[in-house]
Amino acid sequence: MILGIDVGNTQTVLGLFSGDELDGHWRIATDASMTADELRVKVAGLLELEGVAFADVERVVLSSVVPALTDQYEVMASRATGKPPMVVGPGIKTGIPIRYDDPREVGADRIVNAVAAIEAYGAPVIVVDFGTATTFDVVDPSGAYIGGAIAPGVETSAEALFARAARLAKVDLEPPSRAIGRNTTESVQAGLLLGEAAMVDGLVRRIQQELEAPCRVVATGGLAARMAPLCETIDAVDPDLTLRGLLVLYRRNA
Prior knowledge:
Radius of gyration: 19 Å
Distance between the termini: 13 Å
Oligomer: single chain
CATH topology of the largest domain: Nucleotidyltransferase, domain 5
Order of helices and strands: EEEHEHEHEEEHHEHEH
Number of domains: 2
């Protein structure tokens, strides 16, 4: 079995693969203060839910944008499985050209998403990842990763708004039924959710114009299921895209 771990700024997603099948899938809060021992206890508990122990895990594949946790997960995986994890970063064979000014600046999760999207949907393709940031990753018709865009995620925008606007109380991030809010709650929901959707559609259309080629648009990330129905340009929702990308990279480098 292969255990894929994608450490994001807000949430960490774990997936347990047996062959091509995703047998277990968990999403937990990212806590940058956790030690390797604490992580081992937490991950062991998740595996136990599926009747699996670390002894059943052949290798851990890790993608992380939190440097402090990258080190701790490496220690945890090495101790728990007896093998160092495969960490997505410089030196990993991605199988795709990365045409970024400095490839080392690209977040590991963005490369993993691009690899998975090409494998599942072909090229060209745009991946919209709804997380702490809303990221746009673009693969051109030749199958090369060429960059994208990074914008504040809807929850990040909400936190900033409520922190700076004294008279606005927090609201649930539920899609409103209309753009013209008839009360403060509806107005905030319209601004945050429909505003985010309009931003996504606008950027996707600009990217498609620059590509000069029709392409599929795939949504992933913790808020993808909530945001995709509000967007006009998204063709598919794939919540397990990043995890499947980790499996593809493992097979290309094992």
